[in-house]
Amino acid sequence: MDTLRLLSKNMKIEGNPFGSSHQRNQFFLKFVAFFLLIGLAYRLIVTDSTVSPVPDVRTSPESSPSDPSVLTAVAEAPASVDSPRNITIASQNVVASTKCDIFTGNWVPDPSGPVYTNVSCRHIQEHQNCLKNGRPDANYLLWRWKPRDCDLPRFNPEQFLDKMRNKWWAFIGDSISRNHVQSLICILSQVEEAEEIYHDKEYRSKIWRFPSHNFTLSVIWSPFLLKAETFENTEGVSFSDIQLHLDELDHKWTDQYINFDYVVISGGKWFLKTSIFHENNTITGCHYCQGKNNLTELGYQYSYRKALRLVLNFVAEPNHKAQVLFRTTTPDHFENGEWNSGGFCNRTMPFKESEGEMKSEDVTMRDIELEEFRTTQEEGSNSNIGLLDTTSMSLLRPDGHPGPYRYPNPFAGVKNKDQSRTHQIQIQNDCLHWCLPGPIDSWNDLMVEVMLNREMYR
């Protein structure tokens, strides 16, 4: 008010209140200036004393909502091969524009641990039952996968089974696929116990049912995905060269394919084994045949590319209804040797994102996988094929393998004293497969996110 009185005093007009024309003009200009000054003063006072009703929104990876249930992460259809997985974070009222690659990130501490144990799940294969076999540390159980720029929803077995009513889900591949399906069954069995309704003679291919949901789950042993004759003993050692038919798929899975609603399919390490190649009923070359019978060394790159092209062409056929995820290669963590030459894996902590280095064979196989997947995308013949890229997250978990604990109590009775020196009998390590429970359980978070939510982005 003091300001107002001062302005009024300065604006006094002597004599006739209306004065002359010049005086009236001066009065009008002073009157306008008065109200402009009043408005400016009011604006400054309100701005300094009022808090904006719109809160700041931070999209830093470290920030998290007070109620995580408000956010839902959903996978997007592939945009490119180098970054084929995108997810969008959305709340009930606001949709954020930030997208992220759910397959790039780090393992972060998770004190809650796994949802099952080797006691609560009866489907764990003995070679992967690390706790039962005497592994002394359990820190490898206390980590979860965290994408770099977003949150990944935890796999919800109740919701999964509800969505899978009257459906059939199949895993097709080698022993890593079997490792994966056992992880999935262990999680689901905490809601409903699975009934095994079929197994082959070697117990490599199996079928389970979840009766109250009429959900069928299969694993089909087909390490090459192609027709192949293999000759191995029970320890996985070949006693004759593998005969691999590069122009014919394995009928063990193709004959059943019409039944499946969802499929996770993968190649793997078997392509690194010595093998003879057949095409058009003719031997055309080999991999690592070391000059036998004057065969042409074509290499595993040749056979792997041929196999993936044949597989992807088959699943992309328009008359095939199944939604498919092609899973990328799984790196091993053998150090100071391989599985049959004294290699071991005794780490107890994950790598960070910048640590760990893939072997050249794994790099080559992954490159072939991405190239062939890109070709399928570019052809656009079937939008139901997605990429399940577990390579990077797996590379960061050298601590998650059975190692020597693929056998019960592997160090019991293997030490012999000789002149005050202790010599250990060599123990075979498994640095390729995963302990159950273990890091492979997180594959299911990604698998379900990409498979069941990607249609929201078409």
From TrEMBL:
Subcellular location as annotated: Membrane
Example of a GO cellular component annotation carried by this entry: membrane
Example of a GO MF term: O-acetyltransferase activity
Keyword terms, alphabetized: Membrane, Signal-anchor, Transmembrane, Transmembrane helix
Primary location recorded for the protein, binned into one broad class: membrane
Bilayer topology annotation: Single-pass membrane protein
Domain Trichome birefringence-like N-terminal positions: 99-151
Pfam families registered for this protein in UniProt: PC-Esterase, PMR5N
Transmembrane segments: 27-45
Start and end residues of each Trichome birefringence-like C-terminal domain: 152-449
Membership in a protein family: Belongs to the PC-esterase family. TBL subfamily.
Protein name in UniProt: Trichome birefringence-like N-terminal domain-containing protein
Species of provenance: Thlaspi arvense
Lineage: Eukaryota, Viridiplantae, Streptophyta, Embryophyta, Tracheophyta
